[in-house]
Amino acid sequence: MDNQNRKKVSLKYIPLFLFAILVVPFLPLLISRHWRWWEAWVFFLLNIFSFAVSRALAARRNPDVLVERSRFMQLDDAKPWDKLLSPLVGIGSGLIPLVVGLDELFNWSNVFNMTLKVISLCLILVGYALASYALIENRYFSGMVRIQTDRGHQVVSAGPYRWIRHPGYAGSLIYFLATPIFLDSSWAFIPAVLLTIVLVIRTNLEDKTLQKELEGYQSYASRVRFRLIPGIW
């Protein structure tokens, strides 16, 4: 795909990106209309800040990775199973703030204590940092699982990839599971747990694909044993 077509693809999906970046994290406030809900404001602003900083740093280091990610719905060589799982991850990540907003509006859940909220906020920050670090270090960090022969796909073993093989997913899981506590929504654990299951399945399938099709990945996997959770899996 030439540069002109890549720009067209990127521009085509700008409304979708803006919805995911600006509207989805704002759903708790938008639905509940509880404008003094400081945790929801922190959640919204952290999402915006994390996205802006991580993409700026990634663009500075590997500008083509942002083009690759912007084309995620136009990748014909993406694995068939990921054409189902990738959208499910996107939908699941939007369901969490949606349920949080409804929970706050109808007062379904009890409020968590401040100690748990502080811990959960720290975990959210850790999740953001880990996922962002993975994006910045990995120029092949695509929105769809595929072997990027058109981009000279190679094994990435620097940065967080020294510790686990899929740090982007690990960071996302930390963020997803900590969010319900910080935003006082026990019901939001339902989409968070379902999303965790989808991400574990995706991690397993992606890892098998890389071991089978990407040169050097088996050797890397023998050095970095754990896929998602250090010491466990």
Features:
233 residues; mainly alpha; Four Helix Bundle (Hemerythrin (Met), subunit A); 10 helices; 0% strand
3D architecture notes:
By secondary structure, the protein is mostly helical. It has one domain: Four Helix Bundle (Hemerythrin (Met), subunit A) (Up-down Bundle), CATH 1.20.120. It has ten helices and no strands. The longest helix has 25 residues. The chain is globular and about 50 Å long.
Q: Topology of this protein?
A:
Layout: H1 3-12, H2 14-23, H3 27-32, H4 38-61, H5 63-70, H6 82-106, H7 114-137, H8 167-182, H9 189-213, H10 217-223
A few lines on this structure:
The chain is an all-alpha fold. It has helices at residues 3-12, 14-23, 27-32, 38-61, 63-70, 82-106, 114-137, 167-182, 189-213, 217-223.
- Give a short account of the largest sheet: none
What is the percentage of strand-forming residues? under 5%
What number is the mean pLDDT?
91
Number of strands: 0
- Rg result: 18 Å
CATH third-level topology: Four Helix Bundle (Hemerythrin (Met), subunit A)
User: How many H/I helices?
Assistant: 10
| Overall SS class | mainly alpha
Low-confidence stretches: 4-9
Specify the helix fraction band.
Answer: 55-70%
Q: Tell me the overall shape.
A: globular
